[in-house]
Amino acid sequence: MTGSFRTASGGTRIDRSRTLTFTFDGTTYTAHPGDTLASALLAHGVRVVAQGPYTGRPRGVYSTGAEEPNAFVQVESGPGEPMVRATRLEVHDGLRASSLSGRGRLVDAPDTGRYDKVYAHCDVLVIGAGTAGRAAALAAVAAGARVIVADDRPGIGIEASGELTVLPRTTVTGHYDHGYFVAVERRTDHLGDAAPARTARRRLWHVRARRVVLATGALERPVLFPDNDRPGIMLAGAAAAYVRRYGVLPGRRAVVFGAHDGALQAALDLLDAGVEIACVTDVRASTGPLGDRLRERGVTVLEGRAVTGTESGPDGILTDARIGGDIVPCDLLAVSGGWNPDLHLFTQAGGRTRWSAEHAAFIPGAPPRVPIDVVGSARGIPGEAAEHLPEGADGLVFVDLHRDATLAGVRDALQAGMTSNEHVKRYTTIGTGADQGRTSGVPASGALARLLGRAPGEIGTTTQRPPVEPIPFAVLAGRDRGDLLAPARRTPMHGWHEEHGALFEDVGEWKRPRYYPRPGESMDDAVLRECRTARARVAALDASTLGKIDVQGPDAAAFLDRIYTGRISTLAPGRCRYGVMCGTDGMIFDDGVAARLAPGRFHLTTTSGNAARVLDWLEEWLQTEWPELRVRCTSVTDQWAVVALAGPRSRDVLTALAPGLDVAAFPFMATREAEVAGLPARVFRISYSGELAYEINVPSWHGLALWEAVMAAGEPHGIAPYGTETMHVLRAEKGYIVAGQDTDGTVTPHDAGLGWAVKAAGGWVGHRSLHRPDTARADRKRLVGLRPRDPAVVLAEGAQLVAEPPPAEITHPVPMLGHVTSSYRGTVGSFALALLKGGDEREGETLYAVDSGRADAVTVTSPVHYDREGARRDGDG
Amino acid sequence: MTAMAEGSAPRSAVAHLAPDLPDRPGGAVRLREVAFPAQVELRLDDEDATAFGPRAGQFLCCGMPAPGHAAGAGDPYVLWLGPGWYLAVDRPGSAYGLLAGLRDALGADCGGMCGSAVDVSAARTVLELSGPSARAVLAHGCLLDLHPRTFGPGRCAQTVLAQAQVVLHQTGAADYRLLVRTSYADHLVRWLLDAMTEYV
């Protein structure tokens, strides 16, 4: 097939004054601005644009739009994209594309293009900007409404203005509850290399609309016949549209095969465009006035007859249509079986369709529960259409070209006992492709109805779900990638940590320094050095991430007595107490320190990752259970930057920084307001390391100044910064738990060795559950320490504890006695914390820690591995 | 609470990003930090709000805001954060007086204050986003409808922007304040700078 199929003039969408070049399957072609890849290829007589995914049969362009089942191509130029409809791919200079057989290839190079999202609101969303859609939009604008018009075509004959937003090249992909829509706008794809780099290539729109106007039009459906998949066979309305819109002849000699007047109209259009019409055949017994008009113009019109097969050359391209015994040479077979209103967005939100004989189509029935208006052709195009199902067994009758699924498959499904179209869909795959079965769904329902001897309305259509077409992940991700994927919460000292070589770890959303390696140091080296510095001299930790809650009110103390396992109301102002919170199940939920600042005012700390949950927990109890308590909670996590100063020299450092503070008379578990480094500070003398330690709080905007002052004042004492890894080693050596690491929602305070922090009197959250027989069992898992027999081994956290070394071949279940919760190499050597059945009663026993096929002998010890006497708390004198 | 010590300049959580902020007068969109205003968070229950809200409003000279609104045009101003939940904002360095005045207004002087007043001046970074494209920039992440028919000068809301909790306060036809927890400020500013790509 050679020569140009471009007409001498005409084409409403193309600009003939300019010529573009593009490449398809390695061959370079020309096109005009406004051409789609499909129209440009047809203009050059390129008939084969794809292959059937399973049959490998050549396939050609079948339609002009989103309903296209065949012409999916791989875009190779620019960022590349798999499975793009050639019928919607706008040609630009330098476009390179290649044919596919129903499956695209993921592009493996990173897509560096820009994608973004917009949240939009409107009174009226108009989907589809044909005649009906434009009229609806203008009427809504005239009534003063905020209007958005979206259409997936490039040109919308309506101008944006004031409260009218116009979105061309935009596909509304989903209709969700309460007037919520998702749409994808293709903004620069059509510009190729000329696309501005700063402009988002595609935009994901989230639209909230008070009401929606569906002006999505109607899609042509085919008629089924054997060998109906050859290149050269296309929808009749599409064939006429290629001439009208693009000045492209989809063939020179056509057979038109139809079941309704639309096919006859298309034949007239093709005739007007200069296409020779070999014959028109209609399955109806009478073709009426349109048939007469065709005959008047010398066209052979056959009535009550169907195309019964097609012939092709060696290249698989259509050469003849068979109509019964007649063989009619042709290079275009234009088919049309009727019009289907495009109601994806109607049914996605719960609308129902119903069969209308008057329209020979499924039209809008019961609407979804949102204000919705269906206008124009989407309501159905009145007119009869005949049903037709080929009888013979010659050739393959494709119901779904995209899936290569045939009528024989539908018959097989019935043989297998299926009668529901949903079952047949899944059995045959008809309608499950990227084209969402736009050209196959209704023919499949029709075939099923005929084979079962039922009416189409009894069969209905299969459920349509969003999205109406695939959305690339890059569009869904938008700008939420790389550095912007998730917030990284930074403390005021973050920059200092970076400058001083800290390696960070994620703690909730926070970035926390994990350790500060010096040149040549491994992580173990650095952590051990930091540990020794804290134990022997003084070290500083950025503890700003601690959750902090200000609790105020006359009933604050009574409230906290009900929330913590311990008694808070007996605290004197200026004193602190360690506190454990349990859930109603009596299991540890969080722990921290409660400091009484004044009779009716407390400062609580929570674990870094749990701050928001603890505040929610307090609010929940106050709002729902104890609204009579006069207590108010305020998050002050971000108000305060915190430097934890640990080690025997920390008193010297604090003394140097806070000359006005009587450091010598500052008892353990107390808090003081003071000026530290010239900054207004709230200092706590609490220790999470077992050493003499202080936590200095200053307003966050002074955090860096405080940190730098601490480092300077500590320099004569050999101060070093330490990170979370060292913090963990220090706390674990002392047997201090981390809620959420050494506990897992099944650990009571007693299990964790914190019975001393539980008051006998009741009336607090979790108390009742701690009096169940189960929480009093002697063999509950309790916190213990472990020492590996081989001191070179650091146990894996999560390793299972068993009584015997596992045999080489495991033949029966081995009882699990517990598991390792924390394991480090610290100043005491390798050690671990574990939850172990029977707990402290097993002290001295040898067990085995099993992980990943390896078993290490361990000795059960007290969880306190360092300074069991607590002698370090006040420093080294 | 100790008054802010002399000579210790507060340091912004987004100081390292300051050179990147578009602050060209007349630009399509401008972003700048409003440095270190005093901020006090108030919590009252319904009864307290009736009895003590007017006293607090009187002290602040701007009244207390209705739900979804801000009260006060200049300093101080008060933002409604939720039922019985307010944020009073005043010029830098005034936190001590602001806090003391509000505590008095809430009855601290007659023993047993109702509700709470907490100095949170350093808890939130205050950003100002303005210019003809400011609303479009926000629409890239803000789920609220900021159209003049539903939002506008004097309105405020707590919402989520760039996965960070923010207080959004519209101060002029094309002027917005964003109050964000300081630890999220770096993330939010970088997100805003990126969102402005097509507008600056």
From TrEMBL, chain A:
Domain GCVT N-terminal as annotated: residue spans: 493-760
Q: Which residues form the SoxA A3 domain?
A: 398-479
Question: Where is each FAD/NAD(P)-binding domain found?
Answer: 123-351
- Do you know which Gene3D superfamilies this protein is assigned to? 2Fe-2S iron-sulphur cluster binding domain, sarcosine oxidase, alpha subunit, N-terminal domain, FAD/NAD(P)-binding domain, Probable tRNA modification gtpase trme, domain 1
Q: What's one GO MF term for it?
A: oxidoreductase activity
Q: Name the family.
A: Belongs to the GcvT family.
- State the name under which the record lists this protein: Ferredoxin
Starting at the broadest rank, the lineage of the source organism is: Bacteria, Bacillati, Actinomycetota, Actinomycetes, Streptosporangiales
